[in-house]
Amino acid sequence: xxxxxxxxxxxxxxxxxxxxxxxxxxxxxxxxxxxxxxxxxxxxxxxxxxxxxxxxxxxxxxxxxxxxxxxxxxxxxxxxxxxxxxxxxxxxxxxxxxxxxxxxxxxxxxxxxxxxxxxxxxxxxxxxxxxxxxxxxxxxxxxxxxxxxxxxxxxxxxxxxxxxxxxxxxxxxxxxxxxxxxxxxxxxxxxxxxxxxxxxxxxxxxxxxxxxxxxxxxxxxxxxxxxxxxxxxxxxxxxxxxxxxxxxxxxxxxxxxxxxxxxxxxxxxxxxxxxxxx
Amino acid sequence: xxxxxxxxxxxxxxxxxxxxxxxxxxxxxxxxxxxxxxxxxxxxxxxxxxxxxxxxxxxxxxxxxxxxxxxxxxxxxxxxxxxxxxxxxxxxxxxxxxxxxxxxxxxxxxxxxxxxxxxxxxxxxxxxxxxxxxxxxxxxxxxxxxxxxxxxxxxxxxxxxxxxxxxxxxxxxxxxxxxxxxxxxxxxxxxxxxxxxxxxxxxxxxxxxxxxxxxxxxxxxxxxxxxxxxxxxxxxxxxxxxxxxxxxxxxxxxxxxxxx
Lengths: 278, 260
Fold this sequence. Notes:
The structure holds two protein chains of two kinds.
Chain A: H1 2-6, H2 14-48, H3 60-73, H4 80-111, H5 113-126, H6 135-142, H7 146-170, H8 174-182, H9 187-224, H10 230-239, H11 243-271
Helix pairs in contact in A: 3-11, 4-5, 4-7, 4-9, 4-10, 6-7, 7-9, 9-10, 9-11, 10-11
Chain B: H1 8-31, H2 43-55, H3 63-94, H4 96-110, H5 118-125, H6 130-153, H7 157-165, H8 170-207, H9 213-222, H10 226-258
Helix pairs in contact in B: 2-10, 3-4, 3-6, 3-8, 3-9, 5-6, 6-8, 8-9, 8-10, 9-10
């Protein structure tokens, strides 16, 4: 958020640049102070006074130790970066496949009433089923390996991409279609220059939802059973009743989810440079 | 140009063709003998199994008892989210300092997927009622809070000034000015949060529960009975749809009364 607001003013505007730099420094200071206060309060509650029982929640020092343990020695079959890499890779692959298929299908449904009428009944059945409910089916069919994870990621990312691409096309202003018809824009150019750019804002809304859903679903699927991955840290730590490691797992899940959302936002700005940053 | 809506006859022909081809592909795949019927049941096997689950107990209970226990958990988690989310959202909109304290914490916690609370839910509250309720709460809480806060912030300043001039206390301003104005936004938030809550519940029941539809599906999975798992998915989808339809009705009724 802060970076997106600061960078546009940076080049070629010395006074603005220095002002934004100091604003940036102030923001950073505020974040650091907040973090210190939170960790201080947390330390007081758990380690010093013991108001929160150590069996139920970890102290900051314990979390530090758990982090060290998982980063260096490994925990739950792998070290932290291996867990992270595995989960992020799976989500990226599943999400990319699902989004490509979903966006194309959604655009086709938006562009053609016949395709819409044909596909709609299938969607009516599949749409209300929450992505997490596919996990048992994926396990029955594909076991506990990566194939099952890919399946649940695909299913959870697919539906939002389709729906939002579809609404994106339907929300394009009528005059744009009329102009395209008047200029006789058809076939490939019609898709590339009318449908896709017009639907792009809504497509990205869908991709954001898809990414969130696939991340949540993957963590859940890994919690149910996996060899490695962030969810399996949580699963293992839960079985070992190891609150510090549970916290490490939760923080990693949150940071990775946040990082991937930021990535998508970055791509969005590259793909839609005409869109004003609000 | 997007074509005009299809003539009704053509629309129905295509819709039926779509539904039939979906079922046909599924049935052919099931009957072709590539895999066993246990692994990929035909559509009618799933319907059969669904009917069977309604009368024969599976995983301890019949299907509607599982549904009932799921709904009970859902209602508790959802009500808790509403009971905390709405007052907190109003307080945040009225008192700046509450906003300053709650917002950063909320933003940080929101990035943790609800399902990632499962280990702590189990550790703190066990697997009976408390654990799943915490997870539903984590799923359902953010939309209620955000929509209450945003709705309350969009109140016309004139009303707030009028209330203050007439000497309304902070409590009365919040309950009689902010709350009524925020109702449409709150109801829209409730719909989102019910959807997310229901979904989190399913996830929670897959991992920490000993009854409920999610648990039924886990047991079906363990017994490699695809038909049972699919019946569970069907039940979850139907109930989720029902909850959404009810809330949409409420939303439309409120919007009509407000003349939106």
